Amino acid sequence: VPLEEVALPLYFGWFLLPAVQEKIRCTSMDFLKTLDTLEAFKKHLIDFTGKPDQEVDLEQYYKSTGMLHCTTQFCNYGKVEGSKEYAQNPAVQNAYGSVFELSLTALFVTPRTVGARVDLTEEQLLLWPADAEKEAESVVPAAASLPRGSRAHVTLGCAEGVEPVQTGFDLLQILALQKDGQQGEPLEMELGSLIYYSEGRWMLTLREPISVPACFSSFYA
Length: 221
Ligand code: A2P
Fold this sequence. Notes:
- There is one protein chain.
- By secondary structure, the chain is of the alpha+beta class.
- Helix content is 31%, strand content 29%.
- It contains nine helices and nine strands.
- Strand 7 (187-188) and strand 8 form a beta hairpin.
- Bound molecules: adenosine-2'-5'-diphosphate.
- Residues 10-11, 71, 74, 155, 163-165, 167-168 line the site of adenosine-2'-5'-diphosphate.
């Protein structure tokens, strides 16, 4: 087997530098704590519990999923079509090992995942797979009509039994609803404005985006 074929990673992406991992985990926990105490959130608790009058502790509800990162190309060690071409792309090879500033512009939760939206710059979009949104079409039909980079996110936690790949689908779903103009009254909070998108989907658009240094690299389990 040629070496380059066995050398493909599980995925490529930007890995938040260790010093900011802790900070973002705290930001995420603070957000969950705040959300949990909001009357507006309590009104829709059934979205999470499936039963009326049941409590939920959001800080325990989501399990952490390891190193915080923003996946670009999921390769599954080369099993994913296009991953070899991605690894050979000069833009990818040139950027490998470099530190970028990622801009986190929103935090969102659903009954499945909690994540941060990443707003990619033109330069960062050069590392974004051409078909990332289209690939999500079977789960989120409107995904392909959203701008490139719409799926970019950092998974902050997943509910029991949920795979992290779900976070990007949840984000695309919220953005599709947003595009359709399906949104209620925003709730103004210290960190930004919070909107409920039905079925347990909430997004807090940050007043001040959070800029985090992240190394473009790859992960081999
Ligand atoms: P995400 O980027 O949303 O966190 P796993 O541990 O399940 O193998 O996943 C490893 C990483 O690759 C996770 O970060 C995960 O999701 C991402 N990922 C898993 N499957 C896919 C996929 N089919 N498409 C894109 N990203 C994926």
